[in-house]
Amino acid sequence: MKTVSEMFGSMVFDDRIMKATLSAKVYASLKHTIDEGAELDPGVANAVASAMKDWAVAKGATHFTHWFQPLTGITAEKHDGFLAPSPDGGVIMEFSGKELIKGEPDASSFPSGGLRATFEARGYTAWDPTSYAFIKGKTLCIPTAFCSYGGHALDKKTPLLRSMEALNKQALRVLRLFGNKTVKRVVSSVGPEQEYFLITKEMYDARPDLRFCGRTLFGSKPPKGQEMDDHYFGAIKPRVAAFMEELNDELWKLGIMAKTEHNEVAPAQHELAPIYTTTNVATDHNQLTMEIMQKVASRHGLVCLLHEKPFAGVNGSGKHNNWSIGTDEGQNLLSPGETPYENAQFLLFLCAVIKAVDDYQDLLRISVATAGNDHRLGANEAPPAVISMFLGDELNAVLEAIENDAPYKGVEKTQMKLGVDVLPKFNRDTTDRNRTSPFAFTGNKFEFRMLGSSNSIACANIMLNAAVAESLKVYADILEGAEDFESALHDMIKKTIKEHRRIIFNGNGYDDSWIKEATEVRGLLNYRTTADCMPHLLDKKNVDMLTSHKVFTVEELQSRCEIMLENYCKTVTIEANTMADMAKTLIAPAVERFAADTAKNAAAKKAFDQSVPCGYETRIVKKLSELTDRIAEKVDELQSAEISLRDAGDVIAESAMIRDKVLPKMCELRVACDEAETITAKSYWPFPTYADILFSVR
Ligand code: ADP
Ligand code: MG
Predict the structure, then answer these.
(1) 461-496 burial, b if ≥16 CB within 10 A, otherwise e?
(2) Of 161, 205, 456, 693, which is least surrounded by CB within 10 A?
(3) DSSP H helix total and E strand total for the chain
(4) Is 490 helix (H, G, I), strand (E, B) or coil?
(5) 558-601 pLDDT, tens digit each
(6) Are 440 and 353 in contact (CB under 8 A)?
(7) CATH class of 163-552
């Protein structure tokens, strides 16, 4: 048995391997690129490719692939063999610098939202040296960015890297103003906590809705759900423990720091959290984690459900995006410092985040918008669709004191002014925890809790990095020109607090009264669905900000809006079709069979003795007939709603019709079917019930 440290990163071409296999010169050049974003010396690529190939072949790899993240939200790979013919009739294993740096997959089968004209079917992939190559199966995977020949990003990694660059640039300007001359790079980091469900393969296979949609479209509430609170942090069942053990091994081999695992609130729900790393690597790792979870589950006769809302009435799954920014010198810029001066810097970065979240609430909401996540946000288990921030009592008191020029506890001077000798050291507030805030400060990082479990974390971090870069830019522009740095700094922090106080909310985010206050009093946005929020991606203020930091081009934004809305429409349409199908071909016939048999029983009883009342049978048969009529009627209405989509004209109109016509009809059909489930004999029901599925893993 290998120890964890022997196993960890054994399938990764990481720093240890680079150091051992590359010449000092090549290593130094590559390191320069990785650490400081310097352009890669082309001469270095051949040497790296050759070392990579030798290492991979020694580990049994036969193929390589440029691994990328197209706008489908999952990862893509096309495998090429290393082998090349040798003159003596045999083969040699080859891999050139050119093949490492650039690939040319056929881009025409990936969504491009009009970015890729048909004559320009090819796109190209470009090596991202900041994320280590790794071996998956027998394939060397090279993390890459994916672009069209016109240079537009067709993936999620490219804008993420651009957003990190924008943040780096603006944060460095601010740090220079605080007198830091040595810091070279500022990087954002993320630790995503991943929730998921595990069910048995038998249950999954027996449900067309799970197979086609990843969630159940029918199912009445089981007699026991999560009300006993006995699952959260409960003892892990042996079969689940075996899954987790193997999952950890697989993740560790890939250098993914899987650290925490526990049961979640709902039955059959679990969570995995890795140790945080840079946003780019964390995104790659999270994509890999989701893929490997599913693979490992299938080896255990299980299925891992990553859908945001697999079961109605049972908690859904999210992903908490723990985000911070730090320097290459190891300073966390969101950590309150030791000295008042460091705290002034901390407060400025804190304000930058406050301003960013308030100014770009819409972009943050958009970054987590999918048909699946719409079921979760605001469902009293996940944060609402309204974005607000939680800071905790101590920070709140500090901000209030600054805003009102009032004394802060522990400060003797009457006025709280930021400066070398005035702002006291304050402790980080780790004890005060708020679980209902969409965006909570947790001591030295922010936890953005609106992400859905299947979302790529790239989108949320692109928007966060970009929006904070914008705040920092505004600050740096003013502070660089200020005559008196300290008073300008003070004024700016005060102004930010005054202007953006509305986004700070320390109460219960699940409360209905909060939504009322947020929207009616504070004027915060409440985009309940993907159809509501997505078109605002193209609002002028958003386009201006994102293009000015070179995170997206206008065309890229247009294409993304279109792809995301198309995805929403397609997802719901597939669900609607699956529902209609299941209702017509499985549910209605089963209910009919039970009704007919019940009627037959009554007839048999009557034949035996005319005076037998048969009240039970009569009531059931009547009720079931009524329900099958209603089911048939609702199927018709749902299908008419779907047909009406043909007249939508464009995807924005279509998504609004999906929201207003199709989804409500799906709900009505479900209500009728779920009611039928509660009075149909279990042996007649055509697929496993919630109780069967949720308690299937033992
Ligand atoms: P919980 O939120 O469940 O109490 P933690 O706060 O310990 O758990 O950590 C949750 C996640 O946050 C982990 O992935 C952890 O690595 C990550 N994390 C911790 N510190 C930071 C940080 N400074 N920046 C980004 N992520 C962090
Ligand atoms: Mg957490």
Answers:
(1) bbbbbbbbbbbbbbbbeebeeeeeeeebbbebbbeb
(2) 205
(3) 25, 17
(4) helix
(5) 999 999 999 999 999 999 999 999 999 999 999 999 999 999 99
(6) no
(7) alpha beta
| 642/581 Cα distance (integer angstroms) | 13
Q: Which ligand is nearest to the CA of 192?
A: 1
Lowest mean pLDDT among 33-37, 249-253, 476-480, 591-595: 33-37
pLDDT digits (tens, 9 = 90+) for 318-358: 999 999 999 999 999 999 877 666 788 999 999 999 999 99
Identify the CATH class of 4-155.
alpha beta
Q: How close is the Cα of 436 to the center of ligand 2, in Å?
A: 11
273 Cβ inside 6 Å of ligand 1: yes
CB 686 within 8 A of CB 631: no
- Shortest-distance Cα residue to atom 17 of ligand 1: 191
Which residue's CA is the closest to the ligand 1 atom numbered 24? 324
Contacts of 508 (CB under 8 A, 6+ apart): 436, 514
pTM of the model: 0.94
Domain residue limits, the chain: 4-155, 163-552, 568-694
Rounded distance between C-alpha atoms, residue 176 and residue 483, angstroms: 16
| Closest alpha carbon to 196 in 247, 256, 252 | 247
324 lines ligand 1 (CB under 6 A): yes
